[in-house]
Design goal:
- This protein is mostly helical.
- The chain has helices spanning about 10-20, 25-35, 65-80; strands spanning about 5-10, 50, 55.
- α1 (about 10-20) packs antiparallel against α2, α1 (about 10-20) runs parallel beside α3 and α2 (about 25-35) runs antiparallel to α3 (about 65-80).
- The chain is globular and about 40 Å long.
Length: about 80
């Protein structure tokens, strides 16, 4: 296949959640905040983000991305 995949936001939020539950709260917050910054002007996220341009790619809006964001935020809050 040619082309390039984007960064799958759900997996990025899973990483933030995993870091939080493993006690790495600072790293979790950094990953979380970096991923959350890709939300558009009304707070919606797509399925993926282009790693070079930051453009939202794939299905939009994507419930999985939002579920990952909520779960990661909860895990970070619980770990603090």
């Amino acid at each position: 296949m040619t082309g390039q995949e984007g960064t799958f936001l759900l997996c990025t939020f899973w990483l933030a959640q995993a870091l939080a539950v493993s006690g790495q709260v600072g790293r979790a917050r950094t990953v979380f905040e970096r991923a959350a910054q890709y939300a558009n002007d009304v707070g919606l996220l797509s399925e993926e983000v282009d790693p070079d341009s930051g453009d939202l790619l794939g299905n939009f809006p994507q419930a999985f991305s939002h579920m990952g964001l909520v779960n990661a935020a909860w895990a970070i809050a619980q770990a603090q």
